[in-house]
Design brief:
The complex is a heterodimer of chains A (about 575) and B (about 200). With about 575 residues, chain A is mainly alpha-helical. Chain A has helices spanning about 1-30, 40-50, 60-85, 100-115, 125, 130-160, 165-190, 220-230, 250-275, 280-305, 310-315, 330-345, 360-370, 380-400, 410-440, 440-445, 450-465, 480-510, 525-560; strands at about 200-205, 215, 405, 410. In chain A, the strands form 2 sheets. In chain A, strands 1-2 form a two-stranded antiparallel ribbon. In chain A, a hairpin with a 2-residue loop joins strand 3 (about 405) and strand 4 (about 410). The longest helix of chain A has about 35 residues, at about 525-560. Chain A is globular and about 80 Å long. Chain B is mainly α and about 200 residues long. In chain B, about 50% of the residues lie in helices and about 10% in strands. Chain B has 9 helices and 6 strands; from the N terminus they run H-H-E-E-E-H-H-H-E-H-H-H-E-E-H. Chain B has helices at about 5-35, 40, 90-95, 105-120, 130, 145-150, 150-160, 160-170, 190-200, and strands at about 45, 55, 80, 140, 175, 185. In chain B, the strands form 2 sheets. Chain B has a 3-stranded antiparallel sheet with strand order 4-6-5. In chain B, strand 1 and strand 2 form a beta hairpin. The N and C termini of chain B lie far apart (about 80 Å). The mean pLDDT of chain B is about 95. Classes of the chains: A mainly alpha (about 575), B mainly alpha (about 200). At the A-B interface, helix 1, helix 2, helix 3, helix 6 and helix 7 of A face helix 1, strand 2, strand 3, helix 3 and helix 4 of B. Strand 2 of chain A pairs antiparallel with strand 3 of chain B, so a sheet runs across the interface.
């Protein structure tokens, strides 16, 4: 047991130690400072800018930036949907797959463009190699870059700078952050055993009974895998994602995946601190999601380590819950991965969340509800600061001072945007479609596990879509027209409404006259204020979704204690 | 700025980025993989002495007889099928999957009970990994405890000394990364292949 906890602590340490270095690097990139990649990248970027028709010095307003996000993402969506629909006649399709249904193709396209990677299909049997790397692999870069760009524009606005240009930020996120790390990571992953081939599945006779054959699915996996984690995409090449030995063959690849999937959302908070010239505040803000993350890991890991009491009674001893888990990861690495992947909105899995103990279900769902336990690529940091603005407003009301953040007054417009984008959109996109689905359990829901867990399956699917996470309680029969279209609504609402609101919020903050700090100013870089913010986050998040948690995992936990009938 | 210009810029930048991230990057990596890591890049395929492929070092195979160390129960039977009777097309693409049974699902308990009965009949003391199905259904490993629990049975069938099997288990155990990260696992296919070589 102690060995498992040591793995967890060391992994967390690595994540925290990397944060300041990576955060500084990201800040350098977007402040236009020199980096050691300049001699190679400057000419490359100049070519990309001129081919794309991007004028680098052209600054955008919040609304222009938001429109550019929508237009560019729409262009990507159309391109990849087109590739899916004609994959039958495209090359690099060794298993001869035909086009998927229109609603599945649309759902996949929306799900990947929104950086969610919710998958209502099995990779092996649905998408050709070409669709996987030229469509899915493509938007894995651009959707992650869109998230980074929005976060940078938000940070610029919050700190009183012009927002910048979406296309410049988008392209530089790829050329200076995502692509160089992916090249190095892909080489490491190949060395560690991941396939990277265009050859079709290998057929071998099995050793025990040569009449029976085994089909070993393979493909260009390694390069796909690194951007899957680094961009917090999470869409598996194979049906079973990072539990598949080809997507995650050993302890080394698992460690790299864990560290990369939290690298950007953690670093982005430090990037903010550098833009704001206030690293102290950045580390205080950083401590909020870190504390929640640690608490969640402890809850999940204890549940998995103690295992299923009903099975333990049969085994006659206390054993970890290994249903849906791989031997090479065990309870510790599986629990850690589940918490990391739902915290960071990556959504890759190395074990099956549906089979986790209720404590694990409670944590993964809570991560999806809160959205700020480091949160999505870029957007998680932006949500965190939206909560901070709300906390400034609430404390301002309590002590009777004009609420100010970084020397700028928080007024009606900012509070409306912050509360609308955090408080309203997320529950609307989760709870309303869940309610509709649950009214028709036979016709629509596709629930595979009886009792309280079935409710969790439905809520989880919409929460995962709205939070742009992409993991699932995968027993759910979600490959239907209803699920494809209704989750598409949650995917789009959960992605683009907050992004537009964040950019407008940043725009209005950047236009305010700074007010000089006086003795009466409420300081936001103190432990007390950080505590209040954490309280605001937990109260708002918990109150909105508490009924769903109580009826799902909490009730299931009591059911298991009582004994499974 | 006109709508037309915005649309054109969105389309042009999409195409340029597509060429870089969706064509150049993957094709470069595939080429590099084939040259620098041909074994791993093609699926870590193991071959027998005649050079014919017998499986992958990373993917498990079904083993249920008493001549071999048994692997974990799998929901897809390790992506295998009888080629003369493969209506589901498993051999066309290869598959992976999991039970997705919730801990509160009575079906899980029923299945575990059945597996335990089978293990007891085979004379194997059940361990957690031998009664729970894996995440991928392709798990190449069993825990060292699960391997040790099968030594007596395999040794009796093959007429080998238990100490010889212990050595083979030890040789085919994949340890933790840096001795810290992950859990040790015995690669069942490699262990059984080694045993066949030894037993010849």
């Amino acid at each position: 047991m102690l060995q498992g906890w040591m793995q967890i602590v060391l992994t967390l340490l690595i994540v925290v130690v990397i944060t300041p270095f990576f955060g500084r690097y990201i800040a350098r990139v977007f402040m236009g400072q020199r980096t050691w990649l300049d001699p190679v990248l400057n000419p490359v970027e100049r070519t990309i800018f001129s081919l794309s028709g991007v004028r680098t010095r052209e600054a955008m307003t919040g609304w222009q930036y938001a429109r550019a996000v929508l237009y560019s993402n729409l262009a990507m969506l159309v391109l990849i949907d087109l590739i899916f629909m004609i994959q039958g006649v495209l090359p690099l399709n060794p298993t001869g797959l035909t086009a998927p249904s229109w609603d599945l193709a649309l759902h996949t396209a929306i799900s990947f463009v929104t950086n969610t990677n919710q998958q209502h299909y099995a990779g092996e049997t649905t998408y050709s190699y070409f669709s996987q790397f030229a469509a899915l692999g493509f938007v894995m870069f651009t959707s992650a870059a869109t998230g980074i760009a929005v976060a940078i524009a938000f940070i610029r606005g919050l700190t009183g700078r012009p927002l910048g240009n979406l296309y410049v930020d988008l392209i530089q996120s790829i050329t200076r952050i995502l692509l160089p790390i992916s090249v190095v990571g892909a080489i490491g992953f190949m060395a560690a055993g991941m396939p990277e081939t265009l050859a079709g599945p290998a057929l071998v006779p099995t050793l025990e009974n040569p009449v029976i054959q085994q089909a070993i699915a393979r493909g260009p996996v390694a390069h796909f895998e690194i951007i899957k984690e680094l961009g917090e995409n999470g869409g598996g090449f194979f049906a079973i994602n990072s539990a598949h030995p080809f997507e995650n063959p050993n302890g080394f690849t698992n460690l790299i995946q864990l560290v990369t999937l939290l690298a950007i959302p953690t670093a982005m908070i430090i990037t903010y601190g550098i833009f704001a010239h206030n690293l102290k505040q950045a580390w205080l803000v950083y401590s909020i999601p870190l504390a929640i993350l640690i608490g969640f890991i402890v809850i999940t890991a204890i549940g998995e380590y103690q295992g299923n009491p009903a099975v333990n009674a049969l085994l006659g001893n206390s054993a970890p819950n290994l249903e849906g888990k791989e031997v090479r990861f065990g309870w510790a690495q599986s629990a850690l991965f589940a918490v990391f992947t739902t915290a960071s909105m990556c959504g890759a899995v190395n074990s099956l969340h549906d089979s986790f103990m209720p404590s694990g279900g409670f944590v993964t769902l809570s991560n999806l509800f809160l959205q700020i336990v480091f949160g999505g690529q870029g957007t998680g940091t932006a949500f965190l600061f939206a909560y901070l603005i709300l906390a400034v407003f609430v404390t301002g009301l309590m002590v009777g001072r004009t609420p100010e953040f970084l020397g700028r007054k928080i007024e009606q417009r900012e509070v409306v945007l912050a509360s609308f984008l955090i408080l309203l959109v997320h529950p609307i996109a989760i709870l309303i479609p869940s309610a509709i689905t649950l009214v028709f359990p036979e016709q629509l829901a596709g629930i595979s596990n009886p009792g309280f867990h079935g409710l969790s399956q439905v809520i989880y699917e919409y929460a995962s879509a709205a939070a742009n996470n992409g993991s699932g309680f995968e027993g759910l029969g979600d490959g239907t027209l209803w699920w494809n279209l209704s989750t598409s609504f949650s995917l789009l609402a959960g992605r683009y409404i907050p992004i537009v609101a964040l950019l407008l919020l940043a725009d209005s903050m950047s236009r305010k006259q700074p007010v000089p700090a006086t003795a009466g100013t409420l300081r936001t870089d103190t432990g007390l204020f950080t505590g209040v913010t954490a309280g605001v986050i937990l109260i708002l998040g918990a109150l909105t979704f508490f009924p769903a948690l109580a009826l799902g995992p909490v009730a299931e936990a009591f059911q298991i204690i009582k004994g499974i009938g | 700025m006109s709508v037309m210009r915005e649309v054109s810029r969105a389309m042009r930048s999409t195409l340029v980025l597509w060429v870089i991230t969706a064509l150049m990057y993957p094709l470069l990596m595939i080429g590099l993989g084939q040259i620098a890591f041909p074994f791993q890049a093609n699926g870590s395929i193991l071959t027998n002495t005649q050079g014919q492929p017998v499986g992958s070092a990373l993917i498990g195979q079904p083993f249920t007889s008493d001549r071999y160390f048994n692997s974990r129960p799998s929901t897809t039977n390790y992506s295998t099928a009888d080629p003369t009777n493969d209506a589901a097309g498993i051999l066309k693409t290869g598959i992976s999957g999991a039970s997705n049974l919730a801990p509160s699902n009575p079906d899980l308990l029923k299945r575990v009970q059945e597996t335990m009965t089978q293990l007891h009949q085979a004379g194997i003391q059940p361990t957690a990994d031998l009664v729970y199905t894996s995440g991928s259904s392709l798990d190449p490993h069993i825990t060292p405890a699960a391997a040790r629990a099968q030594i007596t049975r395999v040794a009796a069938t093959r007429g080998l000394a238990p100490s010889q099997l212990e050595d083979l288990i030890h040789q085919n155990t994949d340890g933790r990364f840096l001795g810290v990260f992950g859990e040790p696992g015995v690669n069942v296919l490699k262990l059984n292949l080694a045993m066949d070589m030894f037993d010849r």
